[in-house]
Amino acid sequence: MDIGNLNIEWVGHSTFKIKYKNTVIYFDPYILDKDPEKADLILITHEHFDHCDNEKVHMINKSDTIIVTNVSSAKKLSGNVKMIEEGKEIIEKSIKVRAVNAYNVGKPFHPKGFGIGFIIDVDGTRIYHAGDTDLIQEMANYKTDVALLPIGGTYTMNEEEAANAAILIQPKIAIPMHFNFIKGTKANPEIFERNIQDQSLIEAKTLKPIVRP
Predict the structure, then answer these.
(1) CA angle at 176 for the pair 193 and 57, rounded to the nearest 5°
(2) Would 209 be classed as within a structural domain?
(3) Distance, first Cα to last Cα, the chain
(4) Containing structural domain, residue 87
(5) Rounded to whole angstroms, how far apart are CA atoms 133 and 54?
(6) Are strands 66-69 and 125-129 parallel, antiparallel or unpaired?
(7) In terms of Cα–Cα distance, which of 63, 52, 174 is closest to 116?
(8) Tens digits of residue pLDDT in 101-145
(9) Which residue in 3, 195, 20, 16 sits closest to 122, CA to CA?
């Protein structure tokens, strides 16, 4: 999918690849194709195996790759790792990176402070990767053009909750993720799309994964 000067690919699960000119950015590189493109910037939301996999990171790492993540995930990784906390912002590879809250409400899997989400600004286009989270009140303050939202339930929001998150955030485009790749994440993105389009002018768009589940 192209938006402005950016290309966004859903590789699978929570893994996205963003390309801007000669810069390649990955979110949560757990699903990769057979010959993955090398990364300039890797952003990892939390330490769970399906988001933080050092072997997969090594596959796309190069000598000048920057990895940005939270403290607990950094302990599992090798390379040029930079740590960030919720509410903090850094600039790497000319990309503005802000860490935001990501946590469960009434579930034990991702307590507050365990993981983070990211809002990046690439050439004036803001992309929000929610990580593993429920619908949380902080989302009302997240200003973004594109929202990548988990819909798989169990560990995160389900389809309806993620649609409500999109309506709260009001991005131009809302894209579902974190469904149908691992056990406990079975979901129907059409429900997500329908719940958004029935209540708002946001474009709900399900991308085809590069790697099939």
Answers:
(1) 170
(2) no
(3) 20
(4) 2-204
(5) 22
(6) unpaired
(7) 52
(8) 999 999 999 999 999 999 999 999 999 999 999 999 999 999 999
(9) 20
